[in-house]
Each structure stands twice: as C-alpha cells, then as structure tokens.
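forwarding from the other thread:

> can someone predict this with magnesium ion?

sure thing
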Amino acid sequence: MTPGGEFDWIERLLRPLTRGAPEALDLLDDAAVLPSRPGFDLAVTKDAMVAGVHFLPDDPPDLVARKLLRVNLSDLAAKGAEPYGAFLAIAWPAGTDWAFKEIFVRGLAQDGEAYRLPLLGGDTVSTPGPLTLSATLLGWVPAGEAVLRRGAQPGDVLAVSGPIGDGWLGLDDAKRGLEGRLADLYRLPEPRLDLLSSIRKAAAAADISDGLLADAGHIAKASGCAVRIELDRTPLSSEAAAWLAAQPDRTQALLQLATGGDDYQVAAAFRGAVPEGFTAIGAFEAGRGVHVVAGGAAVAVDRLGWSHA
Ligand SMILES: Nc1ncnc2c1ncn2[C@@H]1O[C@H](COP(=O)(O)OP(=O)(O)O)[C@@H](O)[C@H]1O
Ligand SMILES: Cc1ncc(C[n+]2csc(CCOP(=O)(O)OP(=O)(O)O)c2C)c(N)n1
Ligand SMILES: [Mg+2]
Ligand SMILES: [Mg+2]
Ligand SMILES: [Mg+2]
C-alpha cells in the first residue's frame, strides 16, 4: 500500500469515521449493506459542494467538511428525518497534501460525533479541477410521516424557523476578510434538527439553501399552489437588522436578504397553530407563483434566489 495513497487514506483516516457501524463493513467492501427498519421510512438526500461556488477556496478544511455534512443534515431536518448515516464522495485537486486531508477528516469526525452520524461508504478520486465534494445522507422518519414539499394547501400559514439573510451577509463579510458571527455561520450553518418535533407537525417543508423566496416557491410549486410572503415579518438577526437600517432602499434590501440563500433554516406550511420555534411570514394561496409584499404593497421580483447556471 502506498503510504499516503488512496487505500492508506481510507484505512487510516476514513475507517474511524464509521463509528463502528456494522453497515460500513469496515470500508472494505464494494457496497454498504443496510438492514431495513420496520415502522420507518428512509429519507435520502444528496448535496454537492465545489470550492469557489459553495465555500471559499481558502476556508479551513475542517469547516468545509462540517459544512458538507450540515447542508445535507438540513435537508434531512426539513423532511423530519433523524440522521442515520452518510456516504461521501471526494475529488481531491492533484497534489492535495496529507495534512490537509487530516484536517478535513478532523472536521468530519467532529460533526460525526456531534450528530451521531457514521460514515457508511463513499468514493475518493482526484481531479484537475477545484475541491469537489458530495455527501449522500440517510435519515429515518416514522413510516408515512416524512414532511414533503408537496403537502401545502391554500390557507396554510407559511412560517420559517429562524433569521433569514445571515448566510448571505456572512458570505459578504467572509469575502471581504471580515470575521465575526455571520462569517462563522456562513462557514458552519446550523441545521435545524433541534426542531424535528415541530417540523413533523408541518403539512409541507423545505430547507432554505437557495433563498427564502426560491425555497418557499419550491414548496408552492410542488404543492400546486401559490405563496404570499410578507417581507416585513421575516425574522432578522440583530446584525441583519442593523445592516437593513443602513440601506437606502428598505424593500430592495429585504429582497436581498430573502434571496441570498445559505440560510439553512426551514420554511414550512402549517395548518392551524404555528409550533414552537417557527415565525409566520405569509400564507399559501390558490394559484401559482411567489407573491411578495413589503410595506403593505406588492413587490415585483425578478429573481427568487440562487440558481446554478
Ligand atoms: N443530478 C440530479 N440527479 C437526480 N436528481 C436530482 C439531481 N439534481 C437535483 N435533483 C433532484 O431535484 C430536486 C431538487 O434538488 P435541489 O434543489 O438540489 O434540492 P435541495 O435544495 O433540497 O438540495 C430534488 O428532488 C433532487 O433530488
Ligand atoms: C463562495 C460562495 N459564493 C456564493 C455562494 C452562494 N451560493 C452558492 S450555491 C448556493 C445555493 C445552495 O447551493 P445548492 O447547490 O443549490 O444547494 P441545494 O439547494 O441543492 O441544497 C448559494 C446561496 C456561496 N455559498 N459561496
Ligand atoms: Mg440539492
Ligand atoms: Mg440541499
Ligand atoms: Mg433542500
């Protein structure tokens, strides 16, 4: 075995991340083999991240690894699913050194421990391009109880799980070399697994990665209805509120916060009471599309959020 080569990397650095899960077969097999779990459905999600697109090329490797797990954990949270295991694909840029890989693995281990998330398998390749990562996450949800995007109906309340716009503001800070709580949050989002019991009460939900307007719109589209969003009701952090107060055009600034993405909060439709942890910001309606209101007036919107070319 070449020291520092692909199999050395798998055995020495990746195997401990299985946390002893028997399904991983010690990362020595062609595939992981998962037993079924009676009474539960398996939610499966996959998100990729590319240096320069999803994270800054000089972001610390341990934080990049943790963000990869967390953006996927955010999708599981939005389905009401309890994390079960992860599969990881990594394309290392040619010449990535062992020390970098060790730091990356330290991040995986840290969040593997925090979220009790074993690594069950994956793939490692090299690339002439930028660092490219993908994780597939599995989560259990009681049979038939997964919260889907398609469950909203006209009359349901639209609510969000927390502040909107911090991720975009944090990216802006990080790009300008400004460190602080928002730059930290951009690098290390906090998936709302703490709200699983509230999320399971939702008629529909999606996590907010592309932007509030885009992801609320994804729920509406999947549900065959429209959504009205009242920007003045959007929860903001104190930092975002201070930024907003300094902007010349309040409506355009609110729109920026609601379309910037990287929030990793959950948008949900509730029928009846809005549970603990959520703030009502609008409603689902008959029709189609995303209708935005600010300062009591309809706002024309030309872009709902992030979209890859
Ligand atoms: N390359 C792909 N192959 C298969 N399905 C995909 C692909 N890319 C996206 N999807 C599907 O499109 C839907 C929307 O994806 P996406 O916008 O990435 O969701 P999310 O924002 O929750 O990560 C999901 O059902 C996802 O599985
Ligand atoms: C360096 C950098 N530039 C720009 C962004 C903004 N950004 C890139 S992708 C994206 C949307 C989320 O990524 P995507 O791959 O669409 O995730 P998904 O919706 O599939 O979860 C955002 C807001 C960023 N996160 N980092
Ligand atoms: Mg995705
Ligand atoms: Mg996602
Ligand atoms: Mg999502």
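The chain has two domains: 6-142, 149-299. thats all i got for now
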